[in-house]
Design goal:
single chain, alpha+beta, Thiol Ester Dehydrase, Chain A, six-stranded antiparallel sheet
């Protein structure tokens, strides 16, 4: 069940996480899609998107996927992030991350995030540039 739709998740990120450079594209029953604009500051030597940028997109997609299901819980935090870099992302396209919840428990959530280079400013290319698994700790109700 979705507790935060696209508009509500965008508002939450704007109010509680304004330093994030990730935009919320869509919340569906199955996933949350986010986007990070790519410019000069996101690149590393060799003309590719840096690993920390890809990790930030993965983390934001996981956070968004979890919050879309549990509601606005600012204190949910990453406890583990594992990422496989699969191919060179385009330096000329946004990075798009799609997060899907694998497990949502009372205290822990596990999310898979697939990262792609956007094509034509819309959905990601078919080829994955990275795949991440992200685990979040969810605070008990009394700490929210």
């Amino acid at each position: 069940m979705i507790r935060l739709d696209t508009a509500a998740l965008r508002r939450f990120f704007a109010e509680e996480f304004p330093q994030s450079q990730v935009e919320i594209d869509a919340v569906t029953n199955d996933s949350v899609t986010v986007r990070r604009r790519v410019g000069f500051t996101e690149l590393r030597p060799g003309g590719t998107v840096s690993g920390p940028v890809l990790m930030a997109v993965a983390d934001a997609a996981a956070y968004g996927a979890i919050l879309s299901r549990i509601g606005p819980v600012a204190l949910a935090v990453t406890t583990h992030l594992s990422i496989d870099f699969l191919r060179k992302p385009s330096a000329e396209r946004d990075v798009v991350g799609e997060g899907r919840i694998l497990k949502l428990g009372k205290r822990l959530a596990v999310v898979e995030v697939r990262l792609r280079s956007a094509k034509d400013g819309h959905d990601g290319d078919d080829a994955l540039v990275a795949n991440a698994t992200v685990t979040y700790s969810i605070p008990p109700d009394r700490e929210r």
